[in-house]
Amino acid sequence: MDDLKSGSRDKRDNWTPNACLEIAPFWTGKFERLGAWFVGYLWPWNAFHMVTALLYWFYIIPDVQTMRHLAWGWALFLFAVNAAGIFVMYGAVEFFYYIRRKQGTRFKYNGKFPADHPSEVFWFKSQNLDNFLRTYLSSVPLWTLCQVLALWAFANGWGNWVDWRTHWVWLVLLTLLVPAIHEVHFFCIHRLIHTPLLYKWVHSVHHNSINPSPWSSLSMHPVEGFLYFAEVFWHLIIPSHPIVMMFQLNATAYGAINGHIGFDTLEIAGDVPLESHAYAHYLHHKYFEVNYGADGLIPLDKWLGSWHDGSKEADELMKERFRKKKERMKAKSQITTPAQ
Ligand SMILES: [Zn+2]
Ligand SMILES: [Zn+2]
């Protein structure tokens, strides 16, 4: 595929898409785009997470009787399935696009591959190894912990479990709202861990990967990991069903890869394109203080002034914000530091 039809490449081999990011069309009144937007909303990523939620519910999750009691057996089984699922999905993208490099740097935002650039900030100087180990030592166990606690609560009637037969309209609506819940929850915890102290002690671990790759997705400090997966507990507060809860959790765990694929489009099976939806979060890893949310489904970044759509204008606005912030900090330090 010719990536220069939809983007441009600079001297350093970094590729930038021509089209700017757009928030969901119902916020901008572009209702004629609603149909195409809705197809992209469901297909392929959310449809994939819905299917995995069903597979979990019918083939993996133990029966309700078993889940009434916390036990290592079913918890470790879920951990093994989660670990294997992430290994297959993230590992496949890593293997084909970062190790075999089947499409080179076509559609790749950053022309460099992390494996070619060892860095002291990572364990063993390797972004891949560091990110892989953090994923398995911390994030997958925390994901499983939240999953087990939520299922245990549902099984004991502590959640707000409603039936598909009597509440199907609400549950269909809630299923469609799952990505919106994710965006709001993620924005709030993400904005929180960008406050100076929490950034330094917690979130900087994730941001070590300025040029993210698949294993960066769940490479997080445990505090961030828990806050990230705690999103699932919303389904114990609002009327829900464990299948919808599993969709929320799988979209959070498996869906974390979207922002960290590093390529705008993956060429799968010849010329079939797979849009990654990675650009908004790629810009977050590049500039740090923009795009705390996701794709602009609930455009909190737009409303709060931290939206970066990839345009030159957004770049200027961001620089202006940084300049003002610097001035504020300088003025503050002059007040707190007495004159000599
Ligand atoms: Zn990230
Ligand atoms: Zn961040």
List the keywords.
single chain; 340 residues; mainly alpha; 2 domains; two-stranded antiparallel ribbon; two-stranded antiparallel sheet; binds zinc ion
Outline the structure in words:
Strands 1-2 form a two-stranded antiparallel sheet. The protein has a two-stranded antiparallel ribbon with strand order 3-4. Helix 6 packs across helix 9. The longest helix is centred in the middle third of the chain and has 29 residues, at 127-155. The chain has helices at residues 25-28, 34-42, 45-60, 64-67, 72-99, 127-155, 164-192, 196-207, 222-229, 234-237, 242-253, 279-287, 300-304, 312-336; strands at residues 7-9, 15-17, 265-268, 272-275. The chain is globular and about 60 Å long. The chain contains 14 helices and 4 strands. The protein has 340 residues and is mostly helical. It has 2 domains: 24-309, no CATH class; 311-340. Bound molecules: zinc ion (ZN) (2 copies). Residues 190, 194, 203, 207, 284 line the site of one zinc ion (ZN).
